[in-house]
Amino acid sequence: MYTGTCLCGTVRYEVAGPFAMMANCHCSMCRKHxxxxxxxxxxxxxxxxxxxxxxxxIETYPSSENGRRPFCxxxxxxxxxLLPAMNLVLIPAGNLQDDPGLKPQMHMxxxxxxxxxxxxxxxxxxxxxxxxFGGGMGIDRxxxxxxxxxxxxxxxxxxxxxxxxxxxxxxxxxxxxxCRRARSAAHATNAFYLREQLTWLQGESEVKRYSLPGAKxxxxxxCGRCGSSVPRVVSSGRAVVPCGSLDTDPGARPLGNIFATxxxxxxxxxxxxxxxxTYPARA
Length: 283
Ligand SMILES: [Zn+2]
Ligand SMILES: [Zn+2]
Ligand SMILES: [Zn+2]
Known about the structure:
By secondary structure, this protein is mostly beta strands.
């Protein structure tokens, strides 16, 4: 039996497995909904799936005619997606507390990949769905013009949008268990800006803030309508920006991997960038 939980612990579930498929998805909807550079889902028969708690705390955003994007309304973590017509459940691997016993088998919607996060492993890359699910060429996303010196970001439903002036201080991948649960993904990729660089264009009143009890800064700010991670202004005067939600190229790339030894057992770091056990030493 495998267990999963959202960041705040309200939504909990159990799944018996066995897990058949594990895939990374780079579509723009997954990137925005998770606030990560890609999602990773495992599939299992729905007969072995059971909610332990918090099912009534799940909000669902209808992302398309047939697509439903569920999330915890307290913390913004992505929650499992039940597909009764296929007798399947899709579970965001970042929220599993146990090793699912398999590793990602492919990249889906690699045609929608963000330029600021290259794919560096040797797994097969499908531009859209893999051939067994109908193939395709990826999802067209709304086009935002690349304006020099300005980076645009928005949530999946479009209610919340913001702009960032200039380049971030740094961008990095974080593999800590909190980030993995918050983003329901293999790892977070965050860019750090000064709060003065951030301008909300619309929807700031839609933003919900979850702060993890006992943590100094850690939490998740997300759109209350669709659950997408959005920038979080912390007490140090920085804005922590989830890079999966950006619409235009921030002109920066991840510098390295922090909390690398906390990484998910099923995820291999192949980017060749520096890895730090916690944070890089301050110069
Ligand atoms: Zn939660
Ligand atoms: Zn996707
Ligand atoms: Zn939204």
